[in-house]
Amino acid sequence: MPSDPSSPTESGVTRPGTRPATVSMLTLSTFVIGSMVGAGVFSLPAGFAAETGVAGTLVAWAVAGGGMLALAFAFQLLANRRPDLDAGVYSYARAGFGRYLGYFSAFGYWASACAGNVFYWVFITSTLGAVFPALGAGDTVAAVAVSSAGLWLFFILIRRGVRSAAAVNRVVSIAKTLPIVVFVVLCATVFDPAVFAANWAGPSGAPLWDQIRATMLVTVFVFIGLEGASVNSRHARSRRDVGRATPSSASSACSRSSPR
């Protein structure tokens, strides 16, 4: 039995009682954006340039962006129709398909979060290794110690309450978004129609479908984290804020990441 009267039950349904600390729709949006904007988005242009041209890029973004936007609207619909379910993907899976599939949904989400944290911290420590040789390529004892300390720091912030974690997340989201905005502005200022036209078809001799297939997985990977507002829905001031934050953040991500 949870000690907090407002904490979710085993099925992900909130018990009546004192509500937990709440956050605004803007903060929920930063949860989504902060989760979606990871290291992969910054290496995306180089990956696309090596695999496809303008046509393949447009098709890949249209398919992946359209599918993820549909998923965002699905989260919006679920948040509005079942406000009693506030544990995100797990509670929806359990309510719709039973405890067995609900468990695998929660376990899969946890496993993906663990793998994502490993990737991020290896990426961070390997980058810092250029300045601090002791960190190496992110696989040294010092790198493991730094990564563990960072994870425990975030754990402590989350344990202090959602407001502390949200404040840090807002700063991180801004720090992640600013480089993308600067990149888009720079691309707009140096845009060359001749280069754009020359790269329309992509690598010579490569079929368009092969180009799209080579970039589709990376494109979908960029949208991981779309469920950020739904997972934290129990902290929303209004259930409608969850529905509004998810598709608006997805649309924003599509517009920022679309080729110019």
TrEMBL record:
The keyword S-adenosyl-L-methionine does not apply. It comes from Microbacterium paludicola. Residues 237-260 are annotated as: Disordered. It holds the Pfam family AA_permease_2. Gene3D superfamilies: Amino acid/polyamine transporter I (1.20.1740.10). Signal peptide: none annotated. The chain crosses the membrane at residues 21-46, 58-79, 100-124, 130-157, 178-200, 212-231. It is found in: Cell membrane. It comes from the Bacteria. Residues 247-260 have a biased composition (Low complexity). InterPro entries: AA/rel_permease1 (IPR002293), APC_superfamily (IPR050367). The keyword Cytoplasm does not apply. It is a multi-pass membrane protein. This is Amino acid transporter. Keywords: Cell membrane, Membrane, Transmembrane, Transmembrane helix.
